Every structure is written in C-alpha cells, then in structure tokens.
Amino acid sequence: MRFFGIILATIGLAGAAVAQVRQEQPVSALKGHNGNAPVDVTADRIEVQDRADRAIFAGNVHVTQAELTLETPRLTVAYSGGASVQIRRLDAAGGVVVKSPSETARGDFGIYDLDRKLITLIGNVELNRQNDRVSGARLVIDLDSGRAVVDGGPPGVNQSGGRVTGHFTVPQRQQSK
Description:
Blueprint: H1 2-24, E1 40-42, E2 45-49, E3 54-65, E4 68-80, E5 86-99, E6 104-113, E7 118-129, E8 132-142, E9 148-151, E10 165-167
Antiparallel strand pairs: 1-3, 2-3, 3-4, 4-5, 5-6, 6-7, 7-8, 8-9, 8-10
C-alpha cells in the first residue's frame, strides 16, 4: 500500500511539473475565441447575391474578428437574411492565411463555420507557432477548445505524401564539462 502511495505522489509531482511547463508556454489565442465579436471585411470588390443569402468579396480580402484575421483573394460569406443579417459561414479560396497573436495557419482553401466555431483549412496546410511547424492536407481548429487537428490525407495527394510532418524546437540546455 505504501508503494502505491509513493507512485501516486510521484505521478502528482510529475503532473505538477508538466502543468508548470504548460503555464510558461504561450496560450493559444484561438482557445475561447469570441465567435460573437463583429466580423469586419475589406476587399477590392463585393457582389451581393441577396436571393442566395450570400456575398462574394474579391481581391485582397481581409477579415477581422476580435484578434483573429483571415486573408484570401476570394471570400464567399453565407448569411441568413431577415431584419438583421447573421453571418453563418466564410468560404475562402485561392490560398488563405489565418492568424492569431501566437499562430499562423495556411492552406489552399478555408471554411470558417461561425455556428459550430470551427475553422477548416484544406490543401497544403501548414500551422506555425513560433519556430514550430506542422504540415498536412487538412487542419481543423475548434475555437472553443483551441484544439487543432492536422490530417495527412490520402497518399500521393499532397506534398506530404499522405502523412503529417512536423518540425519542433527543443529547449536548449547547457552542456556540462
């Protein structure tokens, strides 16, 4: 019984050490993102298709919501009509860059589902945080939890050959003599 107590105490200390390390790392700005904040869009051109409940922005499109930004050449905004317009979804095409204060994500296409609070990037996806990088075919970011999942996709479809790749920095330690 005493051995079991020592194991639990050791696990508790290890868990506290891991928690301390996690606190020192920058917190993801995507976790808990305010999906209810206003969405501001600027572009070279806009075409409103009111009967279809959508607007198409083209040319140097820049979207801002709280601390989240999205840049793309072309953006389709799906909304519900009525007395006040409610944006439901943003579809980005022609290359998309999503930035938060601590991360940058890139892909060929992007979907921001405001109702489900999910951002999905598809095609040649790359997620960068400081000097760390993860690449794959698809990235899904849950804005409530801050969880990001990268899929490699089918073999031979993208640059990564159907696999997820990553490059991570490690803490630099002084070498003892």
